[in-house]
Amino acid sequence: MDEELLGEFLVESNENMAAIEQQLMSLEAASEDTELLDAIFRTVHTVKGSCGFIGLTKLEKVAHAGENVLGKMRSTRYPASPEIVSMLLECADAIQVILDELQANRQEPDVDHSALIRRLNAAERLIGSGGAGAPVDDEAPAGRVVAAAEPAEVQQEIVQSSTDEGDWLDDFEVIRGALDGAGLSTPQAVLQAGFNVLKEVPGIAAPQALKLLGVAKKFAALATGAQPDPSPDKPEGVAPETGESAEVPSGKPPVSEETAAPAKSVATEKPAVVAKKAGVQETPPETAQAGKAAETIRVDVAVLDELMNQVGELVLTRNRLLQVVSRAGGGMRHAMQVQDAAEVMKSLVPLSRDINHITESLQDRLLKTRMQPISTIWGTVPRIVRDMGRQLNKKINVQMEGQETELDRTILAALKDPLTHIIRNSCDHGIELPSERMQNGKPDTGTLTLTAAQEAGSILIVIRDDGAGIDAARVKAKAVDMGVLTQDAADAMSDAAALQLIFHAGLSTAKQVSNISGRGVGMDVVKNAIEKAGGSVEIHSVPGNGTTLRIRIPLTMAIISAMLVSAGSQMFAIPQMSVQELLAADAGSEHWCAIAGQRFFRLRGQLLPVVRLTDSLGMPAVDDAGGSIVVVHAGNRRIGLLVDDIIGSEELVVKPLGMHFRDVPVFGGCSILGDGSVVPILECNGVVQSLKLSAEAELAQDEAGLDGGRVDSEEMQHTLVFRGLNQLYAIPMMLVERLESLPPGSIERSGGREVLQYRGDVIPVLRWNRILGGEVVQTEEDCCLIIADNGKRMCLHVDEVEDILQTPLRIEMKSSEDMFLGTTVIHEQSTEVIDVFELLRLADPEWFTSGGNAHEEGRRTILFAEDAPFFRTMLIPVLESMAYEVWYARDGQEACEILDRQVPDVVLTDIEMPRMNGYELAEWISGQPRLADVPVIAISSAPPDAYDVEHRRHFHTVLSKMDRQGLSECLGRLHGHESVECNPPQVFERPVLVGGRPS
């Protein structure tokens, strides 16, 4: 078998088959859509025709049987019933199984498809008879030869099937002209030329060359008197693989849930490949080819062009570096003067900066080549839900948002099975039967919602159903029965913590175990798979209102940002996405306490369990002299890792561990630093799991409120405090993308102002001391805050970072200066709170003028109800930048008074407010006929999925207060214009890298 020919066939066939599953389900919903039916027919027809030339007989027979059914549906305009669609989906599955085996092992699998082919043939005869069960000649013996048709008729049929409606060849006349020009005007000449010659003919691409060979083979067969394949409208009555006829009872369809296929036949699993015959090696010689095929991926030409440009820049920079090194080497041999040495060193600074810039650009573009949209694994979800709905007699609707969100293809592959298991669980044990839903006042159709969005360098995937939910009391009772918990521990455990026990091996709340799923059975495997990919998963549920699973996963595992720390004599790396904050921890601090043998650190009124990193890794004990605490989170838990020193941040290339360390849960990989030393990368999920809290310690922690889960004040803000001219200043972390410690000389001057080359961009620099009218203090390193918003960045140079903390930003005294929101108290000191948006305007007066098409359409009005002055001050400029005229109210009651007088285009409301909260405001609006068309958007500091269906029913949507991108997209969809490009939310869950000292 020609490897290149097979490779081209597999690429084309996989592309053609990629959309057929969704097309078939769309055909089921629109059963008389002839264009869609034509597209499906062409796909199967192309696969069958191409594989016939290569000699893939099994694939050809399956595809041919499916093609016959589709062809008969086209000619008779037979509507697509659910039974027919189910059978065609099975046919598509069988084709895909064969393609996958060809991709892996370069040979067709040992699978018997005769039963499926018989059913397809029977369905094709039934469709041809108009559904009345017309007699079929089933008495003909197997392998009978059908009388050959007249050559002219068959030739006409082949030509029509090759050209009509684009089934075989696009631009047939152009291709025929190209063949004539190449001296290949006969079928024999085409066959003798072969694939390699044909694909080089100008105007003929590889897929067309493959199809041409198939057509030429049929013409050559006619010339020798051989029988070609039967046409779609003239099928044989017997499947070629079987010696028995297919019997169709008169008046009954060939496929029904009662007679033809049990419920299992519509399950989502594809047929298993039968084991190889005895004596065949498990790993065939073609393994190398199979691996090569499995690892191929398509890359946009534009991305490759960018990579080539970057490589060209790198070559030029390398040449400059070699010249400098050559000069330095010559100087060494001839006693280089001090002045010459200074010039060499001076020229090395821009060279190193250019190399750094080009390397970062190359890294970003190479990562893009590995990124794929999450739709590549979500594409099977509608099929899974459809089949399970039919099997379970449930009505389930699927909604998907954020399908364009991109992830590393390795992570996508690791997520496929866990997501499938979660979805099957939701369908089986989450969503109720239609009768049960209607009894509970719900619509008979359940809804399964999948959303994906990028947040703070990671991807958040949310899977939510509106089903029965999970009873935490039953989870606790089951855990006690299994011996996982004592009764006392179960009684003291919160419902939120109890739900996480679902991930314990073997724990299930299902009343009846089915062969489909059981919420809890296998969920430990789901959790382990997600954590192995560097992610975390947590579950929330409200009985009667549904269940939500939140999966947080890194964008890529190839290169990560990490915090380097030292413990004992070893250096370790902690992934940045797991780091919440850094703390100084003197051994004699009054914040330390011990409960049941476990050390805790009292942090802002909450107990944080702390473990010395060397102890958790079984390293030799060290003197307890304090150090620094790195607060890390994993799932719904967080702990403090006590380390000797925090070295700094660095981007690391992740290398896999050796086979002896692969089962060690506390390590996720390793990397090599610039000095050649190897640094292990900690797996925070494994470290958290290794911390075994006693029941007494768990209870004390719960009572202290650490696992209560939610900030009790809407005004709690992640805040960075820095020092300038001996005064403290605070800036909300919502727009701080990163903290950088830069070497002197990194900040340059261009166009009369200071700028910084940062990740491929040139961004403006503001020095805080100069803004205040003071002098800039020269230090060994420049401490800079990278602030990002609206797709732009700026750099704020400060003297020193004092702290990063969560604190209620209550403005005690308003400021008369535009640069400040006012004064608050932090660490018992007066601290000026900076207005970030005024700072951005100072950096670039045009920062907020990109309002998209909204400016052309005129200013729309938005009523903004928010009781916290801080959030009003922060969000009003954002709304104005989107070209909205903003009316604001201090609570729901004041908003009602405004709505009595005027009608805005949209209402944006906080949820927790005095006098009248957001729920009550939305309910009041829903009762006003003149406000019926006004959408109400809710914003909250709590996660949007923390609110149940009942509370959300009057809102158009619920968003995080920090989700500026989500707010922009939502308003853009409502008013029919493009959203303003914003950055993802950067606040509560952003891992922070501190360039200064922690306090």
Describe the structure.
By secondary structure, this protein is an alpha+beta fold. The chain has seven domains: 1-143 and 233-257 and 285-296, Up-down Bundle (Four Helix Bundle (Hemerythrin (Met), subunit A)); 147-229, DNA polymerase, domain 1, CATH 1.10.150; 301-372; 374-554, Heat Shock Protein 90 (2-Layer Sandwich), CATH 3.30.565.10; 559-708, CheA-289, Domain 4 (OB fold (Dihydrolipoamide Acetyltransferase, E2P)), CATH 2.40.50; 716-843, OB fold (Dihydrolipoamide Acetyltransferase, E2P) (Beta Barrel); 854-975, 3-Layer(aba) Sandwich (Rossmann fold), CATH 3.40.50. The strands form eight sheets. Strands 10-14-15-13-12-11 form a six-stranded mixed sheet. The chain has a six-stranded mixed sheet with strand order 27-19-20-30-29-28. Helix 2 (20-29) runs antiparallel to helix 3, helix 5 (82-105) packs antiparallel against helix 6 and helix 12 packs antiparallel against helix 13 (338-370). 38% of the residues are buried. Mean pLDDT is 73; it is low at 132-170, 226-294, 705-714, 850-857 and 977-999.
